[in-house]
Amino acid sequence: MRTYPEDKHATPYTIGKAYLVRTVTNYFSGNLVAVFEHELLLTKAAWIADTGRFSESLKTGIMSEVEPIPGHVIIGRGAIVDVCEWPEGKPLPDKVK
User: Fold this and answer.
1) What is the CA radius of gyration of the chain?
2) H or E element at residue 21
3) Can you tell me the distance from the alpha carbon of 40 to that of 59, in angstroms, rounded to the nearest whole number?
4) Is residue 61 within 8 Å of residue 92, measured between CB atoms?
């Protein structure tokens, strides 16, 4: 049986880790800088218009259509559908594709 932290403010996110965030309208990749009550803050971020085969993209880190975002991106946590860890050792997308 899984146990959960007693701290109601604890999150499953790890600062500094790279994630692929699916929102109700878009995907974003990036390194997590901060977690706020209602937002996530990512750096080295990109808007992912198309992941291609989702399971393959989660293994390889290769996305079909990418738009890098200069600076940071703030994502409202209420819009998040799911969050996946970026594949270990794979670079975040940083070129328009």
Assistant:
1) 14
2) strand 18-23
3) 23
4) yes
Over residues 31-72, the pLDDT tens digits come to 999 999 999 999 999 999 999 999 999 999 999 999 999 999
Note whether 59 and 87 are within 8 A (CB): yes
Distance CA 76, CA 29 (A): 14
| Termini Cα distance of the chain | 43
With CA atoms as reference, report the closest residue to 86 among 34, 39, 48, 35.
Answer: 48
Give which of 30, 32, 38, 33 is closest to 9, Cα–Cα: 38
